[in-house]
């Protein structure tokens, strides 16, 4: 088959990328054309995303892509749960809220008290996290919802701007906590009970679907011609897991970045009293798979510390490898969720409250966080094995965090399992592969990723 070429846009909480993927001879070559920073914008006590700025960066990336010859398709993925509201004219209605915004303080507790955990979990199978779209909508002033005509998740919003078609792709729909994975449709009864208008919702569509051509305006702006928008798995974690270079069944993944998503793939959602008690999530994956996983706070804590330290990450991780393990925190303690220049102080306070050694230097604090992430990973793998009955032999670490050799080794040690690290650009590779191959055949897709990536292996060292 002749080579095909596709554009993937991957928007992460701390950075975005526009990449060109070329498929040829069963291999995928990824070239990153444009990288740009992303992050929350604080305004009057709340936190927002600068989606218009992101859109401008995307257009810039597309202009660069247009210089690379004929391109078949484009698809966008991003972090989950956040959305834009549109009015009846299709105009963006106000700013886009950030999932770490203080507007959500106390909202989940209120909704859980009203609806009950059983009702929410049995309908959705989603982990209770204070920023799920369900709670974000419950935090919206009713007047704003009344003025809104449509809710679009971030990647769906960008697809709408690219080609004028407004739909909701399934993997990201599942992150809202008002999608029923067993019925394959919106859990509208949850929204009804909270007086949230369900007319805001649009049709749920599978990844791999062709939405339509770029609008004439986008073609003019970018110089691209004849490019189709094809839905990838728009939830970044779903794209990353699609690109886990695994074979067989007995593996777990860690999608390692701002968040650390620790999970396994199961054929069906697992929604039981035990999975509720363990607060496990069941998110939709590519090809009708289920991702049984848990959110772990991830590198976010170190990223926030380093906003103050401003150290080179490679140096920081090298130094962290040279200090001894000391204390561990629970990275998922609620105090670590909001941004803040005092993140290092929060880590120290946790250690001191739990009568542990209080890390002082950036290297010590970083080591404490990495040790804690590794321990949490091991703990979650034990739960996943128990709940699913699936054996776990190897752990695949993918995403930006898979470059941190120290973290990979700590995970191998804590889990007592082999770690296979890479690809770093799993999300882009998953996005591009679904555009090129469709989503039906995950083993083939993973074969392409394996053929296209150099992987590193870490063997577990006995704990001292
Ligand atoms: C990772 C991720 C997680 C989601 C979190 C918030 O980038 O998409 O899967 O829980 O961001 O949206």
From TrEMBL:
Glycoprotein in keyword set: no
Cross-referenced Pfam families: FGGY_C (PF02782), FGGY_N (PF00370)
Gene3D superfamilies: 3.30.420.40
UniProt GO molecular function: ATP binding; rhamnulokinase activity
Domain Carbohydrate kinase FGGY C-terminal: 252-436
Coiled-coil features, chain-numbered ranges: none
Swiss-Prot/TrEMBL GO biological process terms: rhamnose catabolic process
Alphabetical UniProt keywords: ATP-binding, Kinase, Nucleotide-binding, Rhamnose metabolism, Transferase
Sequence ranges assigned to domain Carbohydrate kinase FGGY N-terminal in this UniProt record: 7-241
Keyword Flavoprotein appears in the UniProt entry: no
Family of the protein in this entry: Belongs to the FGGY kinase family.
Designated name of the protein: Rhamnulokinase
Organism: Deinococcus detaillensis
């Amino acid at each position: 088959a002749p080579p095909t070429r596709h554009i993937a846009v991957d928007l992460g909480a701390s950075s975005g990328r526009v990449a060109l993927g070329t498929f040829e001879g069963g291999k995928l070559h990824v070239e990153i054309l444009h990288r740009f920073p992303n992050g929350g914008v604080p305004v009057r006590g709340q936190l927002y995303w600068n989606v218009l700025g992101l859109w401008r960066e995307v257009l810039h990336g597309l202009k660069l892509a247009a210089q690379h010859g004929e391109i078949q398709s484009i698809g966008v993925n991003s972090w989950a749960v956040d959305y834009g509201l549109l009015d009846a004219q299709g105009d963006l209605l106000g700013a886009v809220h950030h999932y770490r915004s203080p507007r959500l303080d106390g909202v989940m507790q209120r909704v859980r008290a009203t609806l009950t955990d059983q009702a929410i979990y049995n309908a959705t199978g989603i982990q209770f996290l204070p920023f799920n779209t369900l709670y974000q909508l419950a935090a919206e002033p009713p007047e704003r919802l009344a003025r809104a005509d449509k809710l679009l998740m971030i990647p769906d919003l960008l697809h709408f701007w690219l080609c004028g078609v407004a739909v909701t792709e399934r993997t990201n729909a599942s992150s809202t906590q008002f999608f029923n994975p067993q019925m394959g449709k919106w859990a509208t009864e949850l929204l009804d009970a909270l007086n949230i208008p369900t007319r805001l919702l649009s049709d749920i569509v599978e990844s791999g679907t062709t939405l339509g051509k770029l609008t004439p305006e986008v073609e003019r702006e970018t110089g691209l011609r004849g490019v189709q928008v094809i839905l990838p798995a728009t939830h970044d974690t779903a794209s990353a897991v699609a690109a886990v270079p695994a074979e067989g069944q007995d593996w777990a993944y860690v999608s390692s970045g701002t968040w650390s998503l620790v999970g396994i793939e199961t054929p069906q959602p697992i929604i039981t009293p035990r999975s509720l008690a363990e607060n496990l999530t069941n998110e939709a994956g590519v090809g009708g798979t289920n991702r049984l996983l848990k959110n772990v706070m991830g590198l976010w804590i170190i990223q926030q510390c380093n906003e103050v330290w401003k150290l080179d990450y490679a140096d920081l991780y090298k130094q962290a490898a040279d200090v001894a393990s000391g204390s561990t925190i629970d990275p998922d303690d609620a105090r670590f969720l909001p941004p803040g220049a005092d993140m290092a102080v929060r880590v120290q306070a946790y250690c001191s409250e739990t009568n542990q050694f209080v890390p002082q230097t950036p290297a010590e604090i970083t080591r404490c966080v990495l040790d804690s992430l590794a321990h949490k990973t091991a703990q979650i793998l034990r739960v996943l094995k128990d709940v699913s009955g699936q054996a776990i032999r190897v752990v695949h670490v993918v995403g930006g965090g898979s470059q941190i050799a120290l973290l990979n080794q700590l995970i191998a040690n804590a889990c007592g399992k082999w770690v296979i690290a890479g690809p770093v650009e799993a999300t882009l590779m998953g996005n591009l592969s679904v555009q090129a191959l469709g989503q039906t055949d995950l083993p083939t897709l993973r074969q392409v990723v394996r053929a296209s990536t150099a992987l590193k292996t870490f063997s577990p060292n006995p704990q001292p």
